[in-house]
User: Fold these one by one.
Assistant:
Number 1:
Amino acid sequence: MNKIKATFLIIFLSLISMNAYSAEQKPLISLYVLGENKNNKSIKISIQSTLNQSGFVIKDGNRSIKNLDLKNTKNLDKLLENSDILSDIIDAELLITLKLNYQRINKLSSSVYISSEIYNTQTKNYISTWSTPRKIIKFPKDCDDICENLLLSEKVILLSDQLGNSILRILDAKLKEQKNYSNISKVYNFKFYNFKDKDIIYLTDIMVNEFPGFIKITNEQSFGKQNSWSYYSSTDLLKLKKWLVISLSDIDLSIDKDYELSVSDNNFFVKKFPSFNSIGSKGNTKKFN
């Protein structure tokens, strides 16, 4: 009888252990490096190593879709245009894209940074976008191609390590919030009319860097006095409206006095009233008294 009880106890504990392992198991990630650069391989190896050490299983996305040309693919949106192909070959829960952004400033300097995007294949939503700070590489006057490539490689290795840790923090935070990584993003469409360029720059900076839940901005357009963009966020509509009003008040613009705000079906329309500060011709003002 004691042996039977012991056997049942072992089975029971094993089931608990298996369930606990399943609950803690992290999702499979498919990793892609976009664009064409000699340093792409070192970027992938560095970030894959960082994520592997924390228990994430990484799949080489580039190897899975050799029939797709990623050299000219600039971002995740372009990659997802091939969703019909990807759906047949990808079993990963998350997609992460990496892209080295390199620009020559002049003969003696260049700028470089690495950008990334994280996408949930199950919910078909973005989880986050992230970039390393832009770094300036200074080249000595006698620096040849080998010298320049060496300096670039050294900087890329440091940025890759930094980005890998940033992605890891993002994923761990999402894992704590929602075990299945189903952080749902919403898309809001913003249109601003009759605002100055400096006001638009201020608002986009605030919305990107200070509004909680920000994921990304796309479709930025400017036509005459109208500016518009699509804003991806996990924040609800009412909070966004509240934060927008607060942000506009910080530049001395009051709702219903300086502008009108209309919100409908995730669409924000903000129209600034014309300013009547110019004095103009005084003429014979007495006749209007």
Number 2:
Amino acid sequence: MLFIVAICVFIVSFTVWLKLSLWKKIRRRLFPDNKHSVFNMLRDAAEYNFVGTSVNNSLYIDIVKYFCKKSKKFRHYPLFTYWLCGVKLVFIHKAEAIKDLLKEKRIIEKSTFYNFMKPYFGTSVFTCSQWKERRKLLSAGFHSTMLKGYVTVFNEHAQKLVEFLHEETGKEFTCVERPLSLCSLDIVCESILGVKIGALQSEAREYVSSLDRLSDMAMSRIWKVWQWPDFIFHFSKAYRELLQHLRIAHGFSRRECNRIYPPVPIFGRNITEEISICGYTIPKRTTVVVSPFLAHRDEDIFPDAEKFDPERFLPENSAHIPECAYIPFAAGPRGCIGRVFAEMEVKILVCHILRNFSLHSLDSRDQVLPIIKITLQSSQPARIKFRRRQQ
């Protein structure tokens, strides 16, 4: 343990020294209050007295207060600087400075702090280097013409929110953040995905609660500088809580379902050039068939493969699954382009169904066998008994 602590201290010290050295090289740019010394850095750290608090959102309250105070202090300047551990931050808080930044087309790369959000959101349109292509594809769905078509959905859910709030009138007070968030979620899902999830009317809101907590944890890590290195964060209580909420938000049970019943059970490739696969030479003009359905039943990788075991995809277990051992939607350049959309759809549908019904299958897995067509299908209709949950 002492060895790990010593390494951490060395890495942090070296990082601080390196950042400070690099910053001194540009000191001629003369930022406001730009004292290039360790004492200036320690002063900022001393002012950063809210770093350990997080009860009842006090961390975020103190952060806002601190930087409001800082902004007032430098109100005659377009920007000010701040040391956050070994990182020198430049805050711009005047319109002219913001305009100069945003009109600079070469400055488009996101801050490295966005890396802390990858476990929550993945390499989405907000953090991915291919953001231009993805934004171009997504922009069509948010064109003004398309948005006009969503007005009906907005009105429908606004009316539901009003009905919800009517029931709250008999109470002494109502915390409006949650119903507003749930109403927004309903609108987004129906408008973008075309799926009605009824989040506002549902009582089972574990998924939504996990998303809220994940958002809090992402921001908290940014301000708790000792959690920046992944190898330190992975030993923290916050990381264990993160895994718990990610399992709910990402749904590892869904992954096990896709392992046993992959949507794309088989696909082929035409070999255009002679290649070698595991020491075997595959000649040109050969058709190679890949079967995720079979690959997912490899006992060397998935012991007792026919058993439904969601724990295979817990982080500590999935780390041992080799690349391409789990490919429910194929893989590579020709992999299913709608994979993310399909996964989102499943999450929303399952969330909606389980919130409203209890399910019981009338047939065992031995009776409903999978068959391979273009997609994986069942040999006979799956009979499920639905019962409305008690509200």
Number 3:
Amino acid sequence: MMKNISLISLIFALITVINFHTSLSSTSSVATNEDEHIYPSVDPLPVPSLRIKSNQISAGCSYRVQITTGCSSVAHTRDQISLSFGDASGTQVYVPRIDDPKSGTFEACSTDTFDISGPCTRDICYVHLYRKGPDGWNVGSVKISSKHTRTVTFNFKHWVPNGVWWGFNYCKGASASPIV
């Protein structure tokens, strides 16, 4: 009788682990193909300080960045929007001002595409945004693609706070982040 209870407990535990793993893999990351990775839609975190590495502003590779503005955002923002992204080895691409307030970028319910040059990264595992200004801005997602690394999408779906770097860091390892 005791062996039957242990066996039933073991089977129940295995089913629980399989169900947990299935639900975790369906929410933690969704790979649409080998060349694209979509990071989970969890709450982005503020970054108390972000060190911009002076040697990381050089251009060696091209990136296409597609930023979707949420439909609940203001009609368009005139705020300064800065972008930083990189890999687990500490390579960083920094754009001090990605927006052009005169061109109507970042209108509600729209996607803006930017071609950016920067140092060559490995797989991109973090992205941070910075907003400075009175208008406010609701970002939906940031998609980054390049010929030399897989495409990644970071789902924000939040208002970007004013005056602080803010975003996602899915890098692993001690050298994973240029954050101080």
